[in-house]
Design brief:
2 domains; mainly alpha; single chain; 10 helices; 70% helix
Amino acid sequence: MNNMMFGKYIPLDSFIHKLDPRLKIGALLLLLISVFFDAGFIGYGILGVFVLIMVGLSKMKFSQIIKAIKPMLFMMAFLTFFNLLFIQRGNLLLEIGFIKIYDQALFQTAYIFIRLILIIVMTTILTATTKPLDLTLGIEHLLLPFKKIGFPTHEVAMMISIALRFIPTLLEETQRIMKAQASRGVEFSEGHLKEKILSIVSLIIPLFISAFQRAEDLANAMESRNYNPEAKRTRYKQLHWKLADTISLMSVVIVCSSLIIMSFVL
């Protein structure tokens, strides 16, 4: 559980940390959209180099990036198995009994691998370089145009911020419960399937109870402070768009446009 990086803010003094949260959120959305365009390995290579530059500018360690990818390895292996087994297009490369592996299956698997890794790394950079409060302000500012049609922008931004804030807390709570259950003789990695299911139930039930208790405590704390989402309020911290944000946005737009164009040309 300590290896989970998603949702954790890493306080560092870097170029990415100083960027406007509205830029980082918008840039992530543009990059996530461009990832799903079939730009080929050359296009994904360009995007990969751009993401590596962002990692360097954020001063994050590559060990932290690896920690963010590790929890997805099981899903990657699962997708690899089914892709190789069920995609039967292209040239036959290997045949073992009823198992046939085609070159198109390998290409599709490689695409899925690259897309998942890029998505995880880009999302990790956003959450690691942006404070939860700044995320809330950025999301709320980006959603302001929808407020004219009655969309609850502040409430949605607050819920997203609280959800991101409590991801590390719930992971720590999960680890604490696992240690407490292990001290009572519960084994999470050994035993038959039925025993593993019962051990997981012994973990999930107290975790849900703890999560609901934390949610109730948070609601009571906000209510005792007379929190009203519809009230007009001023903000101590104001967002300011700088020249570095404009240059960064132009760089993201150029990279995304290149990938989209390459997906139609190649």
